[in-house]
Design a protein that fits this description.
6 helices; 17 strands; 301 residues; 7-stranded mixed beta sheet; 5-stranded parallel beta sheet; binds NADP nicotinamide-adenine-dinucleotide phosphate
Length: 301
């Protein structure tokens, strides 16, 4: 079968694109490499999505996924490795199997967690070092943990972990936070949260498992005993596999016009993988709608 539209990425942007495309009568396949819902499922609480006062990211992601499937979008859990232009249609190649065919493609691959870049970080992933406190925080019940970062993700992670871990060290490279003041105030009131500011993590301790971190603060080194370190220092795009069809900026984000149209007529981009100023849940779903309508109008030409 040749789908009208293949959406790569099942986060808020991709799921919204699928809803709009289905409602415009197009056949749609969503390819997602992990779980539907995307990055938002890592947020313990979302309180800035219009019409919903407060919801967990997992619940919101589940609702979006159910809506897209109820509209008739097909879903496959597959990791996409590249896209081949076959003239009248595109072949979307995946890690396993023969791939899938579609006329238009919407890229909604989001972004992956940025790594600290400290020695042995990769080696200790899953052995104390993690990037998702919502997913893995419960493993550190009653244990001391650290969170690195100064944005809303780090603040929210610290808040979540303070409910279960014995102590939370919030390590940030500056003396003020980029995240919301209300969250900072709430954290200051927690007895088991310590702010470690103007500080950089320079070393990870432990053989097979993390046992602590070394932090450089005001020119001095300090050792902090922790069993877990959650890195929440933002995200980076993952557009490398599609580079030949896109124009990427210095940071690797895909260029498009305000209709989410790229330099390649059959390829559209939506959400955090796109070069733009504001990366929020609301702007991701807006992109999803815009990209889907642009793809539909290209297909109808
Ligand atoms: P972010 O806002 O970009 O913050 C990243 C933080 O990490 C910054 O404080 C930055 O420091 C620090 N950082 C970056 N690179 C670093 C490095 N190499 N070493 C140490 N620190 C580093 O990222 P985010 O917190 O993931 O949030 C991304 C977007 O999602 C934001 O717009 C945020 O508001 C939004 N968000 C929304 C919700 C929600 O509830 N709706 C939840 C989470 C996130 P500097 O400040 O010094 O640059």
């Amino acid at each position: 079968m040749i789908y009208d539209i293949i959406v790569i990425g099942g986060g808020p942007a991709g799921l919204t694109a699928a809803v709009y495309a289905r409602r415009a009568g197009k056949s749609v396949l969503i390819l997602e490499k992990a779980a539907l819902g995307g990055q938002i499922t890592w947020s313990p609480k979302v309180e800035n999505f219009p019409s919903i006062e407060s919801i967990s990211g997992t619940d919101l992601g589940d609702r979006m996924a159910s809506q897209a499937m109820a509209q008739g979008a097909d879903v496959e859990i597959e990791e996409v490795t590249g896209i081949e232009d076959c003239g009248d249609f595109r072949r979307v190649n995946c890690e396993f199997g023969a791939g899938y065919e579609g006329r238009a493609v919407i890229l909604a691959t989001g972004a992956k967690p940025r790594m600290l870049g400290v020695e042995r970080e990769e080696e200790l992933v899953g052995a104390g070092v993690g990037y998702c406190a919502v997913c893995d925080g419960a493993f550190f019940k009653g244990m001391p943990v650290a969170v690195s970062g100064g944005g809303n993700s780090a603040l929210q992670d610290a808040m979540l972990l303070s409910e279960t871990s014995s102590r939370v060290y919030l390590i940030h490279r500056r003396d003020s936070f980029r995240g919301e003041e209300a969250l900072v105030r709430a954290l200051r009131e927690k007895d088991n949260v310590e702010f470690v500011l103007n500080a950089a993590i320079t070393r990870l301790l432990g053989e097979d498992e993390l046992t602590g971190i070394v932090v450089r603060q005001n020119g001095e080194e300090r050792e902090i005993k922790v069993d877990g370190l959650f890195v929440a220092i933002g995200h980076e795009p993952d557009n490398g596999a599609f580079a030949s069809h896109l124009e990427l900026n210095e940071q690797g984000y895909a260029a498009s016009n305000e209709s989410c149209v790229t330099k390649t007529p059959w390829l559209f981009v939506a959400g955090d993988c796109r070069a733009k100023k504001v990366r929020q849940l609301t702007t991701a779903v807006a992109d999803g709608a815009v990209a889907a309508l642009a793809a539909c109008s290209w297909l109808d030409k």
